[in-house]
Amino acid sequence: MCRHEQSGVKTAIVVPGHGAVSRDGSYRISARCRSLVAAAAPLAEVLPADVVVFSGWSPIGGPTEAEQMRDLWQGPDIELVVEPTARNTAENAVRTLPLLVERGIERAVVVCAPLHLVRARYFFRRLYEEAGIATELSVVRVAPSPSALVWELVAMPVRRRQLRAVRAEARRSRV
Questions:
Q1: Distance from C-alpha of 40 to C-alpha of 54, rounded to nearest angstrom
Q2: What is the DSSP secondary structure assignment for residue 91, as one 8-state letter?
Q3: Is the pLDDT reported for residue 10 higher than 80?
Q4: Mean pLDDT across the chain, nearest whole number?
Q5: 135-157 pLDDT, tens digit each
Q6: What digits encode the pLDDT tens for the residues 83-140?
Q7: Which H or E element spans position 82?
Q8: How far apart are CA 2 and CA 168, in angstroms?
């Protein structure tokens, strides 16, 4: 029996990445990102989820955020999908969308940190629900860093422009 047959709805968990260049010059996912992956594992059991999608790039080469998250996975043995090109939340949403659509996903649960909730909801709900995918957000309690707060404040004014850009990207990919 497929996992979605247990719940009746084909479900995905989506984990957007976050990372930084470490002291040794490599690009690594943050402690916050590792916490999101850890929280997604029991969530995948409870839902139950059919697939987990990890999304995020590497600005300097080497393993992407998505690949690092996949390699960290300790959840159930389900399909794990890597989307290795997204550089920001808007791109996480638009570039994971076709991966969900091609798998017939009807419901997505996006795992995020509290400070990221407003922006994640803004992009994922708009893009996913326009495609007919019910969207929820699962907030993982992680301590906010001052840099994360600054990043969210700086990112808020550009979100409408980013949404227009990713909607245009979505239209181009459907053509």
A1: 11
A2: H
A3: yes
A4: 91
A5: 999 999 987 777 776 777 777 88
A6: 999 999 999 999 999 999 999 999 999 999 998 899 999 999 999 999 999 999 999 9
A7: strand 79-83
A8: 35
Phi, psi angle pair for 90, to nearest 5°:
-60, -45
Tokens 């996949």 belong to residue: 70
- What crossing angle do the helices spanning 65-72 and 31-46 adopt, rounded to 10°? 50
**Measured between alpha carbons, how far is residue 121 from residues 5, 6, 128, 135 in Å?**
27, 27, 10, 9
* DSSP one-letter code for 135: E
The CA distance from 73 to 66, in Å, is 11
Q: Which residues contact 57 (CB under 8 A, 6 or more apart)?
A: 17, 64, 65, 66, 84, 85, 86, 87
Encoded amino acid at 40, one letter:
A
Block residue for tokens 């959840």: 75
